[in-house]
Design goal:
Blueprint lengths: L10 H4 L5 H32 L4 H27 L9 H6 L1 H11 L7 H33 L3 H34 L3 H26 L13 H8 L3 H31 L4 H28 L2 H21 L5 H38 L4 H29 L11 H11 L1 H13 L7 H23 L1
Amino acid sequence: MSDMSLTSVASNRAMEKLKLSEKVGYGMGDAGSCIVWSMLALYLTWFYTDVFGLAPEVVATLFLVIRIFDAFTDPIMGSICDHTQSRYGKFRPYILYLAVPFGIGAVVMFTTPDLSPTGKLIYAYITYFVMSLIYTGINIPYCSILGNITLNERERMSCLSWRFFLNGFATLIVTSSILPLSDYLGSGDRGQGFQYSMMILGALATIMFLYCFASVRERVKAPKSSSSILGDIKHIIHNDQWLLMISLTFVNVFPAFIRGAVTIYYATYVMHASTTFITFFMTLGVACNMLGSVIAKPLTDRFDKVKLFRFINIVLGLLSLWLYFIDPNNLYLLLPVFIVVNVLHLVQSGPILWGMMSDVDDYGEYKLGKRLTGISFAGNLFMLKMGLAIAGSIVAWVLAYTGYIANEPQQNEATLSGIVIMFSLMPMVCYFLSAVMVSFFKLDATFLATIKAELTKRSAQENTTHTA
């Protein structure tokens, strides 16, 4: 077995119990990321149409065009990570060096300069593209690093529970503050209010990433890859579970993104809610997400996470179908269903889904003898961003097709019907599809135990060889 095929780390370090401070620090990275990500997922479509003044169809095209570049930049960044060796590790340096640009990029993207319609369009393309590059540069290393922190399955799930709890906390900060804060700081100018608000949130995101860098350690140290980016891609596509995983990632995250993007339209134009209630409604969903992250670990301690993933998706599909028939003014029925949907969604799309991604990385090393954590997670992050882009595009296209008029209190029936369908039936289809697709995922608890034992054995053998 060559150096390239082994994870050169002492087995006791790779399997050791992690300190609480490191788990919290790991979660802080996603909290920093999510402050900006939640702005993109929940508010960017609405910001472009109702604040910046872009046409819905223009916004839809913008989202998809930028994602085309991600098809190239994501695997490049993943491969760069796999080829990196530094005193900080493979992934930590990028978290350190891009923390400040990440915060600045967020502010610039939510700035609304007084330009012509063409100038606004160009500005939106440039700032969204630059922010996408920065996001790729810092988040592929962040998402990849968990596989190098520990091989211990329970510790990974504990890290992921903290990650998504703090992710939810960060999103809670955004949803509870952004509308009233932008109104207050902008003094009636919502564009200026968004810019000032993002100065605060961007600085907070930067601090969180820096805290993450200082807290985590890379214990699973794979040798520097000597192959090219194309060689890495050719290698990883032979990992059948990786191909399934990236497809499952796209389908599974899509419901959250399309429902998240359309929720503000649903509350504003279907429910005719006040700004206060809209803030409450969106914050409620996030608070339920946080609860989901808390209960995920005890559930996965008791049940096989793959079987649990399938069951939850079936339940979510049925609840989403129910949302279609609920009277939006019947809060006694709407709110409980909305709460359960948001709790369960985070359980399966948060710790469970990302835990499965790390399992796929271990499986790749077990089967193919090479650990390509960076490019592996690059594929998942690309699908994640594609889900966000297509969800935002669908919302914008449906609004444009149905005759949506920005800031008009009374929308036509076609627009209202389209909003309701995007809020309920489109997520339903994806949940049921996820339940079917995961049936082909073979990394259950029994097989994973075999994989972990083999990787630990290889590691011990490698260290014995180096010591001799």
